[in-house]
Amino acid sequence: YVRDNDYPHEAIRRHEQGRVEVRLRVRADGRVATCAVRASSGSAALDRQTCELLSERARFEPARDRAVRSVDREQVAA
After folding, report:
1. d(CA 35, CA 26)
2. Could you give phi then psi for residue 34, rounded to 5 degrees?
3. Residue 36 near residue 48, CB atoms below 8 Å
4. CB–CB of 72/65 below 8 Å?
5. Which run of H or of E encompasses 57?
6. pLDDT band at 77 (very low <50, low <70, confident <90, very high)
7. Each residue of 32-56: pLDDT tens digit?
């Protein structure tokens, strides 16, 4: 979901790098409803960009209940 050219210019200028861990709430249609940083990279720009890109690009197979209806779910990504 994230490509090299997605790296925030602000983070490049500041020589920032790191790993971001996020929790995603996925809607029944498979799109991201919310993104929350669980473990920060130490860079606000990287944390923000990660949630923005995942919210925009990520699609998931919706979770299903016992009646095989799509339901909301949470997903942890690092």
Report:
1. 9
2. -145, 155
3. no
4. no
5. helix 44-57
6. low
7. 999 999 999 999 999 999 999 999 9
